[in-house]
């Protein structure tokens, strides 16, 4: 698109992308790359940086390229993981992944790179003040958009027209006006409002950077670059500025990501399909409808729908067979062969805690205030031993937004 299309009479590609962006992101030129999780987004980021920097140094007057980058992530953990994009990092991807030969690394070190998370775009308080003072003085106590940009982009010096790389920016868009068809209520509305606040901070921050120092282009790299429910757009619609779609199926067929497996031993039939092929419709009305807060809201029992218990045990039976094969492969284990991984994906944080406790065991308080360990129902995944003691290293972990 940058170097070839217009030479061959295909300038319509860029024109269409610009038109799509004017509808959804006025003033920002965004290009999205859809890449399956685990297929190497960070490597592609490194390739984009190297391509821009070396072209810019070879021809400083070429306005298509830049040597200055602002990389924006959705969280602190991702920000830390992207340190490999700094050319001077000991484990930088340019050398580790053979993106550049050693003789070009000196040039790449001239790049200006900032890695931050979108929360940095939120204006900070300039002085601490009480609620009454804030109500009287209003926004005068918080950073202006220009002050925020100076803080976030201080290390870029006087650089202008930078390149922005958004990592997993599926919250980064401005919401459309709500219509009767897409109005939400209750917990769904609260969840959508939370996403909208994150989206507003992210997109407003980029607009402030554009107005203050200029943005040449924005690259969005995400496994899910599509509009979410409550966005004002049709749920699941790809961002119209997506130019490349490398799906999970493509990644699996290419051998780039691990192959997911499901058990095929489910022979209990309901209608035309096995029960566990479409289990959600059988269990959704019997599970917590919303996520947990800071306190445990599950009570003194951990009851799962029978269909869900059956599905977990069916999966576990299939897993155990392959686990025992791994366990008996002493040569393979000595050479670093790892066991298969068992993953359960849940719809909210209350359900994830419920399933986690069922699988691994949990601490139960008795009426006399004594605490005992309730046994995990899938033995290999228990986080306790046979004597009621927690293991120092867990076999099962819970990963969700509340837990983090």
In brief, what are we looking at here?
It is built from 13 helices and 10 strands. It has 404 residues and is α/β, with parallel strands linked by helices. The chain has 2 domains: 5-253, Rossmann fold (3-Layer(aba) Sandwich), CATH 3.40.50; 269-381, no CATH class.
What does this structure look like?
- By secondary structure, this protein is α/β, with parallel strands linked by helices.
- The chain has 2 domains: 5-253, Rossmann fold; 269-381, no CATH class.
- Helices cover 34% and strands 12% of the residues.
- The protein has helices at residues 12-24, 41-58, 76-81, 93-96, 105-108, 131-137, 145-152, 186-212, 248-253, 280-283, 306-328, 330-334, 349-360; strands at residues 30-35, 68-73, 112-117, 162-167, 215-222, 242-246, 269-270, 273-274, 362-365, 371-374.
- The strands form 3 sheets. It has a 6-stranded parallel β-sheet with strand order 3-2-4-5-1-6, sandwiched between helices. Strands 7-8 form a two-stranded antiparallel sheet. It has a two-stranded antiparallel ribbon with strand order 9-10.
- The two termini are 40 Å apart.
Write down the secondary-structure element order. HEHEHHHEHHEHEEHEEHHHHEE
Low-confidence stretches: none
Major sheet: order of its strands?
3-2-4-5-1-6
CATH topology of the largest domain: Rossmann fold
Strand-pairing-aware structural class: alpha/beta
**CATH class (first level) name of the largest domain:** Alpha Beta
Distance between the termini: 40 Å
- Tally of individual domains: 2
- What is the averaged pLDDT score? 86
| Largest sheet report | 6 strands, parallel
The percentage of residues in β strands lies in 5-15%
Second rung of CATH, namely the architecture of the largest domain: 3-Layer(aba) Sandwich
**Structural Rg:** 25 Å
